């Protein structure tokens, strides 16, 4: 359990002013009638679902999406009344909570559609749902090939309110948009079939950040933006828009300095050795906080300069070579993700160390790192 009131010399810094600015920028990119949904799943990609959602709603988003009931519950407890789209797929034991919390679930299985309709009839008020269509991602959703069949069935369910219909791109941020356009065509075809059966969902949506940037023809009524609101592009090749800045930084203070002589080793396994007399700085953050478990790879910023990680990252700490930075001393602030002086360690650099994607880095900063909100 994280106790934010207790001091810790390693933390995640969340720049709420940057987040607000990003939302104003994204809002300005869209026609006034297009709605902006903030995908706040996985604790708003690590920012903290409550504070981040509040800023999003104040600066251009008009609805939210989360994946779990507990994330939705946290938002409702914080007094947020905006529409909340519940992503993914539910099992029957979750359905009463969907109603209780006033959520708009994605529905991609007829079985669940029927059960929700039943619950809507019982309470005498239809349950708002967003029909999820599988157009090629093959994760969640009703299969586009069978649109005629499920459309007829859905048209019979009087306990549902069709608040929306959506699909999700399997590939939206790469240069080749062939399959994305294919998915768009399948989506439009399914929509026509659905409407012909008498089901007219209020809001149509297909785009994530990649689609927002590169597939304007698929914007429909709502765009669902996650990573772009964080000031991070989903890939290196998608369209750039000016004025976005990263919201999250990760920082720690030097807590120890060791003097080493030539031949001395650093860390478990003794896989790094000093070649000259030097100084080793210790930062109290490790793989137990979400830092990639690398060895003799990666760097941090100190005094606005890059210093290399030496030895292996340990659970709670990592070591850096301060030999070329004689002014560095205990208490100095280091940046592990983000900017200092003129230097930046982008999240993509950590993703490369982890052989993964930036999303994975953002959401895996553990909650034992306090979230420090600045720019309120
Ligand atoms: C995560 C998610 C998004 C947001 O994706 P980004 O690339 O972060 O913008 C949008 N829609 C669905 C269904 C998602 O699961």
What's the order of the H and E elements? EHEHHEHEHEHEEHEHEHEEEEEEEEEHHE
What does the radius of gyration come to? 24 Å
Oligomeric state of the chains present here: single chain
CATH superfamily membership of the largest domain: Alanine racemase
Number of strands: 19
| Strand content range | 25-35%
Category from helices, strands and their pairing? alpha/beta
Number of domains: 2
Query: Helix segment count?
Result: 11
Instruction: Report low-confidence residues grouped into runs of 5 or more.
Output: none
CATH hierarchy: architecture of the largest domain: Alpha-Beta Barrel
Helix content, binned percent:
25-40%
| Bulk shape | elongated
Major β-sheet, in short? 10 strands, mixed
Bound molecules: pyridoxal-5'-phosphate
**Can you identify the CATH class of the largest domain?**
Alpha Beta
Query: Quick check: average pLDDT?
Result: 97
What do we call the CATH topology of the largest domain?
TIM Barrel
Distance between the termini: 25 Å
């Amino acid at each position: 359990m994280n106790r934010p009131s207790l001091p810790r010399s390693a933390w995640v810094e969340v720049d709420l002013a940057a987040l607000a600015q990003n939302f104003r920028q994204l809002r300005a990119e869209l026609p006034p009638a297009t709605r902006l949904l903030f995908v706040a799943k996985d604790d708003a990609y690590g920012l903290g679902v409550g504070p981040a959602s509040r800023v999003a709603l104040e600066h251009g988003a008009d609805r939210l999406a989360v994946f779990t009931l507990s994330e939705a519950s946290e938002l409702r407890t914080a007094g947020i009344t905006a529409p909340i789209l519940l992503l993914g797929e539910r099992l029957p034991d979750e359905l009463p909570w969907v109603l209780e919390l006033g959520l708009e679930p994605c529905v991609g299985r007829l079985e669940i559609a029927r059960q929700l309709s039943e619950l809507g009839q019982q309470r005498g008020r239809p349950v708002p749902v967003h029909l999820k269509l599988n157009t090629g991602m093959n994760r969640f959703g009703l299969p586009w090939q069978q649109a005629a069949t499920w459309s007829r069935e859905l048209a019979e369910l009087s306990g549902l309110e069709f608040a929306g219909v959506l699909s999700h791109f399997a590939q939206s941020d790469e240069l080749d948009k062939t399959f994305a356009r294919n998915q768009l065509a399948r989506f439009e075809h399914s929509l026509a079939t659905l409407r012909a059966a008498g089901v007219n969902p209020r809001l149509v949506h297909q785009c994530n950040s990649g689609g927002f940037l590169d597939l304007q023809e698929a914007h429909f009524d709502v765009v669902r933006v996650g990573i772009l609101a964080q000031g991070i592009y989903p890939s290196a090749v998608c369209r750039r828009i000016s004025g976005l800045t990263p919201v999250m930084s990760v920082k720690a203070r030097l807590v120890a300095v060791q003097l080493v002589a030539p031949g001395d080793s650093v860390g478990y396994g003794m896989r790094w050795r000093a070649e000259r007399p030097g100084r080793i700085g210790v930062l109290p953050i490790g793989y137990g906080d979400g830092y990639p478990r690398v060895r003799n790879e990666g760097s941090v910023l100190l005094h606005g300069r890059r210093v290399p990680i030496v030895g292996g990252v340990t659970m709670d700490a990592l070591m850096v070579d301060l030999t070329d930075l004689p002014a560095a001393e205990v208490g100095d602030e280091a940046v592990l993700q983000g900017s200092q002086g003129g230097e930046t360690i982008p999240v993509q650099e950590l993703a490369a160390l982890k052989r993964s994607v930036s999303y994975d880095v953002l959401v895996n900063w553990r909650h034992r790192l306090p979230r420090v909100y600045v720019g309120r």
